[in-house]
Write a structure and sequence with these properties.
Blueprint lengths: L2 H6 L3 H16 L6 E2 H11 L1 H4 L6 H11 L5 E2 L1 H14 L1 H12 L1
Antiparallel strand pairs: 1-2
Helix pairs in contact: 3-5
């Protein structure tokens, strides 16, 4: 069955996760992993609205500095999702969205 047919019946959340999988896989090497440098470049290019304004936060600095160290180390999809989730939790956008949801 083609991925498009499978996604047709998916929820919005499932489609969102599928998009992350596709983007990760499009940037990953043949081993299905990203180098730390690739992961950092991907986050800076594709997640810029969420990380904007986070540069001074200690946790952000820790995550990005970890990606700068040992660039030969590879990151699998699970590690990438942990990084992505951590950055999302810190994001100003997430907090703004939570406030909108609470006002309903």
């Amino acid at each position: 069955m083609s991925p498009v047919k499978v996604l047709r019946n998916c929820t919005e959340l499932e489609k969102s996760v599928a998009t992350i999988v596709v983007i990760f896989n499009n940037h990953a090497g043949p081993d299905g992993k990203l180098s730390k440098a690739q992961a950092k470049d991907l986050l800076l290019a594709q997640f810029q609205s969420f990380i904007k304004g986070q540069e001074l936060k200690p946790k952000y600095k820790e995550i990005i500095s970890d990606l700068d160290e040992d660039k030969d180390k590879k990151i699998d999809f699970e590690d990438f999702m942990i990084i992505l989730t951590s950055l999302t939790i810190m994001s100003n956008i997430m907090h703004e969205l939570q406030c909108l949801t609470m006002k309903k």
